[in-house]
Design brief:
heterodimer, A: about 400 residues, alpha+beta, 8 strands, about 15% strand, B: about 325 residues, Ubiquitin C-terminal Hydrolase UCH-l3, 2 domains, 13 helices
């Protein structure tokens, strides 16, 4: 009760003795935040409700264990429960994905005074056997939101590069550099500086981080030792290649990748499918009986007659759907190509999808068209083969 | 009460869509007609088809840059405060974004003086249930009505995998509308805008001339259009199902052999109305259809014809040109 009061007065007297004096640990980041209770509902979603206890998120380096922890400290109990202590990094241990802490922008509708609005979510891959949803949510408890962004940036820097927390590390890229770590560009540059130097655990972490960033951007990650052949088709294998041979990713690779990215952003990623399906193209389809037959089957149930085929093909709905399909193929805001893969998977054309992306300098629409061409070729072959079989059967 | 938080889908602003929403909710007496002009002739023709219950003025917000047009500055009009809203006037605050079209239409229908039979059981019950509610609660009642939402959401897009949140990226050309209704009630024309705190009286008309209210409404709409000429708009009339009046006339003429010409004219008009309904029905089926498989087959068809690579190259060039032109403009 009283410690809360002290907190308000800013004295912080209540907890000063408990931890900072502890010579075995170094608090790298601390800020006042409460937890959100997440309850699994019947519909599979989690219901989030604020835990009203006053607390603090701490990023702590334990010098005796050479280990980095994420802790939620209960300011009233003046302690950290075991369930609220998460291992981030341990010297000599294996590295793992730590995710990021992000502001919840599409959270529940909040009514004034009822729910906190400075909500943050730490999304991370769930630990093996864990029943948690793969994320934790927190709400800011400092009266002023002025420093929120700074805290979040600091935390994300440690999540991206936990090795930099080691006070004994020679790394010059420790999280003290102010404000960095929010945008991907600053962290990639940071990684580039050291990626060529040596193969310390630090660099391995950074190369991993770089791989992850490139992967998220949907970039092919060229291994400069590998040939340009399609040996590194999928991002996962490149990523592990980079892991096993730290230092193979060079600044030149990074620059190349970024240049490609820029081109991708400024150049038209088209052609949009609605631009491709011209009125003349539709006319040509209507002249082919076999194609017409297949199209007829896909009209609205009540309209499956030749009478309505042209009206449907030239309808605004078809144009709109081609537009949506184009948008679905393009990478989303985070650079994820999930849409592209999901469209192809939906239509049984996932085979060679990754290769098609590489063949078309990561233009998902061109790659999609390549997959369509291939699947049609294959269908054609199957059809002729089947016909051949039928012929044989009839001969027998 | 409804289970909370149910979504209202976006629906297209089209007389065929709105008429079907009303039909789905059980009101078969009313239809919507798009108006291309507000001149005397149009209004007279409209009136000759049967009762005109109200006009709906739709602003199309092209992008977020365009703000909703302000009320005409020439004659600033004040919305009525809650305690002076006539008790028989149905006015609801807009509480759901995507429900606003349906809400504007309901505002007209609820004030049309229809019998419970003409409203249909759902709306008749809704009308008597909400009549004493204040505007905010009326808005909430619309938003939480299962029946109305169901009729509205029957136009929900079926191409689920494109809509599934994570893969659905707003295309930017999705349009936002705002709807304002104009209705006659007891000698006064009111502007009903769910974003205002109350109905706005825009003028009076003599009850002896039932069409004179249209001239008053026209003036108010004209003022709005002049105030922001750059904004796209549509105009729709909420009218009696035109087939009802035609059928009534037909009954009259059937026993009158002298009016054979007029008779065949009405028969032709009725056939035209039936054809329009058929067209609406077909278009609405198309609106509800999932065209993703068809589109995929179109592209596959072009691949089979061997024209796909060529079409792609041409499309890419055209697209690059378009982008270049856009850049030149900005």
């Amino acid at each position: 009760m009283y410690s809360d009061l002290f907190d308000h007065l800013g004295s912080n007297a209540g907890n000063s003795s408990s931890s900072s004096s502890n010579s075995n640990e170094k608090q790298l980041v601390t800020f006042k935040a409460g937890k959100m209770d997440l309850t699994l509902q019947e519909n599979g979603n989690y219901w989030a409700a604020p835990d009203t206890r006053r607390g603090e998120i701490r990023i702590v380096w334990k010098t005796n264990e050479n280990t980095l922890y994420w802790e939620w400290y209960d300011r009233r109990e003046k302690s950290v429960a075991d369930a609220d202590r998460h291992l981030l990094f341990s010297l000599g241990g294996t590295s793992q994905e730590l995710g990021t802490l992000e502001k919840v922008t599409n959270g529940p509708k909040q009514q004034a005074g009822e729910q906190p609005d400075r909500l943050y979510v730490w999304s991370r891959p769930p630990a093996a056997g864990a029943t948690n949803p793969g994320y934790e949510m927190y709400w800011m408890q400092d009266a002023s939101e002025e420093k929120d962004d700074e805290f979040i940036a600091k935390i994300n820097q440690y999540l991206a590069d936990p090795a930099s927390a080691n006070p004994n590390s020679s790394s010059t890229t420790a999280a003290s550099s102010s404000g960095a770590g929010g945008g991907s560009s600053s962290s990639t540059t940071r990684n580039a500086d050291t990626a060529t130097s040596s193969s310390s655990s630090n660099d391995r972490q950074q190369v991993d981080a770089l791989s992850n960033i490139l992967e998220n951007l949907g970039m092919p990650q060229n291994n400069n030792e590998g040939s340009s052949s399609a040996s590194n088709n999928n991002a996962a294998s490149t990523s592990s290649a980079a892991r096993s041979g730290a230092g193979t990713l060079t600044l030149a690779d990074l620059q190349g990748a970024m240049a490609g990215l820029q081109q991708q952003q400024s150049g038209p990623p088209g052609p949009p499918l609605q631009e491709l399906v011209t009125p003349a193209a539709i006319t040509s389809l209507l002249e082919n009986e076999a194609i017409k037959k297949r199209l007829l089957e896909l009209l609205p149930e009540e309209q499956r007659s030749e009478e309505f085929l042209e009206e449907n093909l030239r309808s605004p709905q078809v144009q709109q759907t081609l537009r949506s399909l184009t948008m679905a193929l393009l990478p989303d805001d985070t650079g994820s190509m999930d849409g592209y893969h999901s469209v192809l998977a939906n239509f049984n054309m996932a085979e060679g999808a990754q290769e098609a992306l590489q063949n078309n300098s990561n233009n998902p629409i061109q790659a999609f068209l390549e997959c369509v061409l291939k699947s049609v070729e294959k269908e054609g072959k199957d059809d002729t083969e089947e016909e051949g079989k039928k012929d044989e059967e009839t001969k027998e | 009460m409804a289970e909370g938080g149910e979504e209202w889908c976006t629906i297209e602003s089209d007389p065929g869509v709105f008429s079907e929403v009303l039909e789905e909710v059980g009101c078969k007496h009313v239809e919507l007609e798009e108006l291309w002009s507000l001149d005397e002739e149009t209004l007279m023709t409209l009136h000759s088809t049967g009762a005109v219950y109200g006009l709906i003025f739709l602003f199309k917000w092209e992008s977020k840059k365009n703000k909703p047009p302000a009320s005409p500055s020439a004659k600033p009009r004040e919305p009525l405060s809650e305690d002076v809203i006539p008790p028989n006037l149905f006015f609801a605050h807009q509480t759901m974004t995507n429900a606003c079209a349906t809400q504007a239409i309901l505002s007209v229908v609820m004030n049309a003086g229809l019998t419970p039979e003409q409203l249909g059981p759902t709306l008749a019950e809704f009308h008597s249930f909400t009549m004493t509610f204040p505007p905010s609660l009326k808005g909430d009642a619309i938003a939480s009505s299962d029946e109305i939402r169901k009729a509205h959401n029957s136009f929900k897009k079926q191409d689920a995998f494109l809509q599934e949140g994570r893969f659905h990226i707003p295309t930017g050309d999705e349009e936002a509308f705002h709807f304002v209704s104009y209705i006659p009630l007891d000698g006064t024309v009111y502007e009903l805008d769910g974003l205002q705190k109350g109905p706005i009286p825009v003028g009076t008309f003599s009850a002896g001339e039932p069409t004179s209210w249209l001239a008053v409404a026209r003036e108010a709409i004209q003022e709005r259009m002049n105030a922001s000429p750059e904004i796209k708009f549509n105009l729709m009339a909420v009218i009696q199902d035109q087939r009802l009046e035609l059928k009534r006339k037909l009954g009259e003429l059937e026993n009158d052999n002298d009016k054979a010409a007029e008779h065949s004219e009405v028969v032709a008009s009725l056939a035209a109305q039936d054809a329009k309904r058929e067209q609406w029905k077909r278009e609405n089926q198309q609106r509800r259809h999932n065209y993703v498989p068809l589109c995929m087959e179109i592209i596959k068809g072009l691949a089979k014809l061997g024209t796909l690579p060529e079409l792609a190259t041409e499309a890419k060039e055209r697209y690059a040109e378009k982008i270049a032109k856009k850049k030149m403009k900005t």
